[in-house]
Design a protein that fits this description.
The protein has 291 residues and is of the alpha/beta class. The chain contains 11 helices and 13 strands. The strands form 3 sheets. Strands 8-12-7-11-9-10 form a 6-stranded mixed sheet, sandwiched between helices. Strands 4-3-5-13-6 form a 5-stranded mixed sheet, sandwiched between helices. The mean pLDDT is 86. GO terms for molecular function: DNA binding; DNA-binding transcription factor activity. Belongs to the LysR transcriptional regulatory family.
Amino acid sequence: MDLSLFYYFTALSKYMNFSTAAEELYLSQSSLSKRIKSLETKLDMELFIRHPRTIELTEAGKAILPYAVHISNEYEMMKEALAGYTDGRSLLRIAAISFLSYYGMMNGISLYIKDNPGVNVNIKEINSQHGMELLDTDRVDACMMFSKLVSTDKYNKYPLVKDEMVAVMNENHPLAMRDTVTLEQLGNQELVLISERDEPFFKNFILEEFQKRDITPKIRAYGVWISAIWTIVKQSSSISVLPKKVTERIAGTGIVYRRIHELPEFHFSLITKYDYNKKVIVDFIRYIKNH
């Protein structure tokens, strides 16, 4: 069996959206669909229930997901080990948070790969904390992540996309009647946030803003994946705080978002170590900023 099929299954399970998962994997939706169907055929069972506009895991899909994640991680480690064998080509090593596709970066990276056949590109999906560890130990050339909490003394920050956090809620929630909400109002609501394991920036950013105002938020749950948070918010009175760019990409019926008053903006950025001048990364930075 082709082990990469489990990698595609894991990605689709994470995003619960063929379009987003396909973009993250550099595939067309039809190609991803064929790979998922191939895995289902080889396992002789359906892994997803396909609705007209959404998908969900079957019980069998839920059962094999932990094993698929393990296989996928091993598969990625194998690819990373082989990345050094470049046949004389330059090697570009990038660590990127899993929200890369939400910020429109996949198209620019795909074009770079197409226009630079002499460069092998190795992209490793991480959270921001792990990414900085890889950058500090020279295991990657650059990180693509949120830069607000990154020191300018040790790193170069190249802002790519500006964003802001918004309050995401059921369309029937009382706060949905307002154009904007305040942190004081959110402090009285049950909140569902992205887990620190998936991306620590979001938790640290929003809790820091609450702390500045001496507000103790009511955290009901932490969701590992956006799809899980979306389901909780849609089916309850809980509110989530998510990046606007992410919310715009996955917003659907029954869910609305509202600006949060006085919350600072932040940037999705490309980050390198200070004075890092490896030619392949300098060329990549110039290319991405122009595309």
